């Protein structure tokens, strides 16, 4: 069974990455992977803050200057043109509008949209440090749990899978939050996600287990906020081969009464082969799915771990 949302997931994105000719020189930075692959699953909401504040196309290029902790955005060849306040005001207006998005893809190195490592200059000297772009910094501060990435970093298969996985999880959480979160709904959500979390962080897995045990005894608003904060924090930790082996061995415990002795030996060997790096993770997962095909009850708590995102994306091929 492959998980797919009922509709495409809303994701914010820098307009130029979709091929819109909105850059300072009238060009674009279309990214084929974002448009042609992820675009089948993400419904993009494009934003270009520099155009939105009226700078025009083409326009004078801007850069960050001053204190890296509180940089200003000024024109490269006309430092009297300072658009800092306009960019910040626009960013706050976008956040106030409250568009429901489950992730954001920023344009790297942009003084307005860069997620990190944007050069900050002091006058005409060499860069004095780095910062996030002004618009991006407001978005990330306003929505600290929302998955964010830059298009360049998505070339890394580990970062790419981590981002896409977190977008799908966060979107499922927002769907749950759209209704009133009850103890039973939270427990069901946790049951579906606990093995996925365990593949990233056993500490967060145990912490959420204790937290969910308090469902029904604590205020649900504060408990649910602590829950999603802990979950998203845990999912930012890298899923490793060792952690996946731990999860697969947990799953074997679920299957011990459902499969025969020969199948147990075969699955144990497959998990060990994965541990040694001689087979990919997907091989073990497909075998487990085969055994679970006729055991729907056991599958309920495992399906999101086995299929956290559409298989067509091929994101687990690197593990």
Strand portion, in percent? 5-15%
Shape estimate: elongated
Rg on CA atoms, Å: 22 Å
Helical fraction equals 40-55%
Mean pLDDT: 92
Q: Uncertain segments of ≥5 residues (pLDDT<50)?
A: none
Number of domains: 2
Quaternary structure classification? single chain
Structural class: alpha/beta
Distinct helical segment count: 13
**Strand order across the biggest sheet?**
2-1-5-8
Strand segment tally: 8
Order of helices and strands: EHEHEEHEEEHEHHHHHHHHH
Characterize the biggest β-sheet.
Answer: 4 strands, parallel
Distance between the termini: 20 Å
Please, could you describe this protein's structure?
The structure is a single chain. The chain has 13 helices and 8 strands. The two termini are 20 Å apart. Helices cover 47% and strands 11% of the residues. A 4-stranded parallel beta sheet has the order 2-1-5-8. Helix 6 (183-198) runs parallel beside helix 8 and helix 9 runs parallel beside helix 11. The chain has 2 domains: 9-155, no CATH class; 156-319, no CATH class. It is of the alpha/beta class.
Could you give the topology of this structure?
Elements: E1 9-14, H1 32-37, E2 42-47, H2 49-52, E3 62-65, E4 72-75, H3 84-97, E5 104-106, E6 118-121, E7 127-131, H4 134-142, E8 148-150, H5 157-178, H6 183-198, H7 202-213, H8 220-235, H9 241-255, H10 261-276, H11 281-292, H12 296-300, H13 303-306
Helix pairs in contact: 3-4, 6-7, 6-8, 7-8, 9-10, 9-11, 10-11
Question: What labels would you give this structure?
Answer:
about 325 residues; alpha/beta; four-stranded mixed β-sheet; elongated
